[in-house]
Write a structure and sequence with these properties.
Elements: H1 2-23, H2 34-47, H3 50-63, H4 68-83, H5 87-100, H6 107-123, H7 125-130, H8 140-155, H9 162-189, H10 193-206, H11 213-227, H12 230-243
Helix pairs in contact: 2-3, 2-4, 3-4, 4-5, 5-6, 6-8, 8-9, 9-10, 9-11, 10-11, 11-12
């Protein structure tokens, strides 16, 4: 009876081993050095096979967690995630690299990449194709992108990425201002005049140089008028005409032939 039990156990073990060998492909990286895995991952990244690059970078860090190849893999994998469309993983990888290696020579790139990932997430693929105004969408990604670029230019003003970050920040300021104006216009059309005025006023104070300030001032004039606040209306109108002499008091004034947000 004991012999039978041992025989059954042996047969079961062999069956399980056979099932495991059938279900798992051999690991091509078995025995590879850190340098070899990194080189193969870089080749995959440069050739556009981003999922393979991610897999190899993950193997590299798991197998060789210490040393310069592991550090570089932590940074490279963020870009691979970004190019493969995994924006959440890309941002998490950037944050992790910044936290683990705050003095790394390439940490400025981690800040820049984090900003770019959020920047392009805000634009949206379909938004670029349809030429939809990106300010009509949630501005969360724009704000997070702006914060990442701001950290970059404050901490590394001479970084090779700083000038591009500043240009993108200027764009994002305009986008966030226009987003708030879009919300204020929504409130106006629904006769929520106080909410509209408050939102427009915030635009004027927060983004004084943005193109959307003209629309914000128009909304303030119309909103104060609807609320019967004559003195505040006159003050807003005076500021409007001083800065925009050709302004017309229309909530749905004609759009420019090429809106600012299509210039990027």
């Amino acid at each position: 009876m004991s012999l039978l039990r041992h025989s059954l156990a042996l047969i079961l073990a062999l069956l399980l081993a056979a099932c495991g060998s059938l279900g798992e492909a051999p690991d091509e990286t078995a025995g590879w050095s850190a340098q070899k895995i990194y080189a193969e991952a870089k080749d995959a990244l440069q050739s556009g096979t981003y999922e393979r690059a991610v897999t190899l970078f993950e193997k590299l860090e798991a197998r060789y967690p210490f040393g310069r190849y592991a550090q570089q893999a932590q940074l490279e994998i963020a870009y691979a995630y970004y190019k493969s469309g995994e924006t959440v993983s890309a941002i998490a990888a950037c944050d992790r690299f910044i936290k683990l290696h705050p003095n790394h020579p390439s940490v400025d790139y981690a800040y820049y990449l984090k900003g770019v990932v959020n920047f392009n997430d805000d634009l949206g693929y379909f938004g670029q194709i349809s030429r939809q105004d990106p300010t009509e969408r949630d501005s969360r990604a724009a704000k997070e992108s702006f914060d990442a670029f701001r950290e970059l230019v404050v901490k590394f003003p001479d970084s090779r990425y700083a000038d591009d970050a500043r240009s993108r920040m200027a764009y994002l300021i305009n986008a966030m201002a226009a987003n708030d104006v879009h919300v204020a216009r929504y409130y106006m059309k629904r006769k929520a005049y106080l909410a509209a005025v408050n939102r427009a006023q915030a635009v004027v104070k927060t983004y004084p140089q943005a193109p959307a300030v003209e629309d914000a001032l128009i909304i303030m004039v119309l909103g104060y008028d609807a609320l019967g606040l004559t003195d505040l209306k006159k003050d807003a109108e005076r500021v409007l005409l001083k800065n925009f002499p050709q302004a017309t008091l229309s909530l749905d004034r004609a759009q420019k032939a090429k809106p600012w947000w299509q210039l990027w």
